[in-house]
Design brief:
Elements: E1 2-7, H1 11-26, E2 31-38, E3 51-53, E4 64-67, H2 72-86, E5 89-90, E6 93-94, E7 111-112, E8 117-118, E9 123-124, E10 129-130, E11 135-136, E12 141-142, E13 147-148, E14 153-154, E15 159-160, E16 165-166, E17 171-172, E18 177-178, E19 183-184, E20 189-190, E21 199-200
Parallel strand pairs: 1-2, 1-4, 2-3, 4-5, 6-7, 7-10, 8-11, 9-12, 10-13, 11-14, 12-15, 13-16, 14-17, 15-18, 16-19, 17-20, 19-21
Amino acid sequence: MKELVFLGAGKFALEVARYVADASAAGPETYRIVRYAVVDGETAHAPAELCTGLDEVVWEPGTPVVLAVSDTAVRRRLIDEVVVKHGLAAENVVHPASRVDPAALTGVGNVIGPDNYLGVNVSLGDFNVLNYLSSVGHHSRLGSNNFLAPNFHCGNSVEVGDDNFFGLACTVAPEVVIGSDCRFQAGLGLFENAASGLTYLAPSRIKTIKSL
């Protein structure tokens, strides 16, 4: 049984813990979460007896860890200042209800929840998150530290850079190229390339009209 330390102890960490439990039950690898490292500024929701402040942890090189926070900026800081700095072993977590070829996971630290589909010759770098009910079209490539909220879908041959956050139910057309450090509003449809460092919003918004 592999003992895991979670980086993060908030609500999203509990979601990822369920993925780990389901993966462990399906085998062949089994896991046990032995500690949740509470990140500064987050409210801990993990079992109190397993929680330790991040600054209090004495890291041993090679410790198996799972990155379990959702904010891409915080994730990047933890990757650089904790995982890489201390030589930790970031685990790929793949829910057994998802269709993911092992060859698609070219990097480490990816978290893939239930009911996701990765097409043929898809490539994922490091520390990407696919929540659930999402698909990545064949021959597409994701870089590092991209967070895909539920119901993300992209067509074939899409290129995604690093450190992007996609809100609920985003859709990306085939062969679109997306840069890095972007945020995409929930429900957005992308049909053109997206430059780096920008926030993308849908032009329409909900308005209310009083009924007569």
